[in-house]
Amino acid sequence: MTSNWAEAFYEMQYRSLKQTGEITEYEMNFAKDLRMQVGRPLGSVLELGAWDGRLARTLAGDAETITTVELIPEMVAVAKRHSTSNITPLCGDFYDIEISSTFNTVLYMDGFGVGEDEDQLALLERIRNWFDDDGTAIIDIYNPTHWIKADGQSMRPDSVNFPKVERQYGYDYKKNKMVDTWWHTDKPQDSVSQYLKCYTPEQIHALCQKAELDIIAYFPNGAMDYNAWRYKDIASLEECMSYRIKIKKN
Fold first, then answer.
1. What are the helix (H) ranges across 22-171?
2. What angle, rounded to 10 degrees, do the helices at 73-82 and 6-16 form?
């Protein structure tokens, strides 16, 4: 189920920030948090929506093997150029791609919510089949409470290095989706948007139950204070931009 917006949006986002797969302090801290949240050796890992493979490379020393799945060929090419010997980058849509192996750990960071509830349920069922009976998955979920507050906010993702790239957040109240629109100031007519379904902790719990999955932990991420225009690294589950769920088979 490739969304009709996903490829154009993620290509534009990646090219706009001229990223080349480098591992930064952000990835190092991100990986440290993930290791703690998984709470055991990573073993074999499947990462969905893997971008250019930088998180996988950051985790490679702690994993037996890592298989990454990314939709955009350009990003997969970067991942392949930089991957260590225990990383296998795959190009494809993880709603459709065929993967016969099972894994100890499945990761899906910053992207869950493409499509409608039935699409998320189908993906959760696929994830359930991809991890071992005693395996776990960590998934980022967008929190509607925060994104309703973000509706209408505009900014430059990196005003120093990329001053011509702008973005604006919106919220589709009917479908409960955050809308993230990017454009270049010299080509505003070529804007692209992503649309991600948001779920409260209660809503994602109900969806996971339908997929025969139990949520065994919630990990709130940070939140943006739009009045002070300041990001808070620590936020409650109610106010965070997104939160991670740790799931297992029930």
1. 25-38, 54-59, 73-82, 117-130, 144-150
2. 50
pTM exceeds cut of 0.85: yes
Per-residue pLDDT of the chain (250 residues; tens, 9 = 90+): 557 899 999 999 998 887 766 788 988 999 999 999 999 999 999 999 999 999 999 999 999 999 999 999 999 999 999 999 999 999 999 999 999 999 999 999 999 999 999 999 999 999 999 999 999 999 999 999 999 999 999 999 888 888 999 999 999 999 999 999 999 999 999 999 999 999 999 999 999 999 999 999 999 999 999 999 999 999 999 999 999 999 999 9
Q: Which amino acid is at 62?
A: D
Domains, the chain? 6-141+200-221+240-249 (3.40.50.150)
Backbone angles phi, psi at 5, to 5 degrees: -110, -20
